[in-house]
Amino acid sequence: MNSATASEAQQPSSELETGSQAVSKGQILAWASWDWGSAAFNAIMTTFVFTVYLTSDAFGGEDQASAVLGGALAVAGLAIALLAPVTGQRSDIGGRRKLWLGVNTGVVALLTALCFFVFPRPEFLLLGVTLIALGNVFFEFAGVNYNAMLAQISNPRNIGKVSGFGWGMGYLGGIVALLIVLQLFVQPSFDWFGASTEDGFNIRLVAVFSALWFFIFALPVLFAVPELPRPAGTARLGFLASYGLLIRRITAIYRTSPHTIYFLLASAIFRDGLAAVFTFGGIIAAGTFGFELKDVIFFAIFGNVVAAVGAMIGGFLDDRVGPKAVILGSLVGLLIAGTVILVLGNGDYVFFGSTWAGATTFWVFGLFLCLFVGPAQSSSRAYLARLAPHGESGELFGLYATTGRAVSFLAPTLFTLCIALAAPLVAEGEAQRWGILGIMVVLLAGLLVLLPVKPPGKAEIAVVPSV
Q1: Pairwise CA distance, residues 173 & 171, whole Å
Q2: pLDDT tens track for 312-345
Q3: What is the CATH architecture assignment of 251-390+409-451?
């Protein structure tokens, strides 16, 4: 046996298979608790409440504030794309995966709490968008370590179920946190000091609530899951030297396990389509189907519940038929539901003697979209965890974040382009619906790129050079 063959023979098949086969339910619950808590930053701070506050007229006008926020988030996305793989790599090498999960989570909670000092005046806009942008950067860094930890608290028999449970907890945590915020701060059901709207006090207090929610629910994983041991014989690297090692490892992964790289590319495409379903879903509901704000909120709540259920069901199927089958099935389901919404639109139709209104079309098939988003997201994470070489999950999930950021322009661009092309050809108010076609194109492209990719078990585990 030559030295190269011997090296490969000694290489563990994957971090998942070389980890502990005895999985503690307590550790799984503690790990999923982080997902539950992190939803406060996603749902409240960056989606439904605080960024809406930041882009209000109080900060100098919606257009200007939105442009400044968009620019800050674009810079944050670039920073994530450049830094995520190296931060994941360094936590792997140093045996500090849990430490950096805790540090980055703490930084996000602190930045979120500091949003309390963003008063509703134009001079505070820069502070607000800077805190949100930095929060996004450190949130992604924390997410890299959190996703990499999946291999530590699962085994080959239940990784799909565990990943799906985590995604489901994230969806449900967002709903619970959002409902609390609505009842206590945004539309308070009783009079108390936190309901005061003077100087945006109620919304600024939402930031403190979100910080505490995230921090408290993130604590269990830091106590329940042991730290990743530092690999034997690894040397410390300077920050810039980490990029040299990253390049060598990407080259080695492509040479020894090309389907890992193919999956990263395919998942980047379809994950952009999945994100667009939620990003533009509310916009289409209001603009095309005439939903009022309260209707959009109700749909968002039901949609997240359905997505949570879908993620958990998908997790069970993942362990039985494999993640690739779950992802492909979910993408097909998304394409069918999206096509029905596109074709039927907001018209009224008669089925079996009863009238089917346009709003009913969106409620039924929009919820089907949500049902299939959860399994695709969950199984994508489980797919990559199965392919991660021992001690390399952080670096691989860093690349996962980077490739996702690299193509994040696809769905928004095609959504906008399809609307622009449809505008001269359809009646006024009908063009927005054709933006759905742009999202469907991205999902179809991701499905087609994924088709030839070998599923875990048939794809080789990468052999990567040591430090």
Answers
A1: 6
A2: 999 999 999 999 999 999 999 999 999 998 888 7
A3: Up-down Bundle (1.20)
